[in-house]
Amino acid sequence: MRRWIKLSGDTEMKEHRREQKKKGFTLVEVIVVLVIIGILMAILIPALTGYISKAKTRSCEVRRSSMQRYFKAAYAGEDALRDCTDIVELKQAAGQDILGYMVEHGYCEEEDTECPVYHQKYDIDFFVEADGKMNIDFICPCNETSLGGYLALAKNFYDGKLADGSKYNDRKDLIEDLYNKRGSLLKVSSQFTKGTAYEGGKEMYWRPYYLNDGTMVMYATNENSATHAQWRGALMYVDGKVYELPEGVKEKPYGKSISWLSTVGSYEEADKMLQEKGYQLVK
């Protein structure tokens, strides 16, 4: 009798354990699993997003490289283009639309002329050096290490604001956005300081500035930060032209106030005002 009672108790214990197992996870176990999943997602999603972004940027690099090859073939094969030495002459020879010219003459397809990341037509930077070396670059916000790409990136920020139905409250906010995106402003290369009062001096950095009509210009001082650097400019980049303020090399930071640009509404006005303010055309 005692043995039967013991066996019966053992059976009840086993049944009880089976019932507990059937109940599944406890609340604590579920919370632990969810926390682990959340941690993994926090780690993996940014990494995956970064890989996707890099892949897209890489696809644009490949396309720009292909476009450079196509252009070199056109430059060598077309009499109208072969004697051009700068972007102005090139646009005149191609009827203003260089990309359209290349498509029309069979050097590339229409889809090749567009950035696969930002889905906008490439801009072109072209010049021939004194030794005859030809330089061609297809520009979009992806190639932000070139001045043209850097300018396009700033314009993309500006246009994005307008597309959202808003606008920058202050021009310095555009500088901050560009700085945060890249982690630095773009360093002024020796290409732009050569032959100026700033050659061999302190490093300078380009800051974007939008005119009243939305067009973009750049100004440079020797300060790399997200600030407006007291709105002082030593070098100015306006529609492919570079101006310098020679006496600005004595200032700290380089340059003098460019706050008057807030009243300017076009490239033409900017050119005129720069000359009136003592800036000299460099190239």
Give structural notes.
This protein has 283 residues and is α+β, with helices and mostly antiparallel strands. The chain has 9 helices and 10 strands. It has 2 domains: 58-143; 168-283, TcpA-like pilin, CATH 3.30.1690.20. It has helices spanning 2-22, 27-77, 79-82, 87-93, 98-104, 147-163, 171-182, 190-193, 267-276; strands spanning 123-128, 134-139, 186-187, 205-210, 216-221, 232-233, 235-238, 241-244, 256-257, 280-281. The strands form 3 sheets. Strands 3-4-5-7-8-10 form a 6-stranded antiparallel sheet. Strands 1-2 form a two-stranded antiparallel sheet. A hairpin with a 5-residue loop joins strand 1 (123-128) and strand 2 (134-139). The model is unreliable at 1-7 (pLDDT under 50).
Present the secondary structure layout.
Layout: H1 2-22, H2 27-77, H3 79-82, H4 87-93, H5 98-104, E1 123-128, E2 134-139, H6 147-163, H7 171-182, E3 186-187, H8 190-193, E4 205-210, E5 216-221, E6 232-233, E7 235-238, E8 241-244, E9 256-257, H9 267-276, E10 280-281
Antiparallel strand pairs: 1-2, 3-4, 4-5, 5-7, 6-9, 7-8, 8-10
Helix pairs in contact: 6-7
Quick overview:
The protein has 283 residues and is an alpha+beta fold. The protein has helices at residues 2-22, 27-77, 79-82, 87-93, 98-104, 147-163, 171-182, 190-193, 267-276; strands spanning 123-128, 134-139, 186-187, 205-210, 216-221, 232-233, 235-238, 241-244, 256-257, 280-281. A six-stranded antiparallel β-sheet has the order 3-4-5-7-8-10.
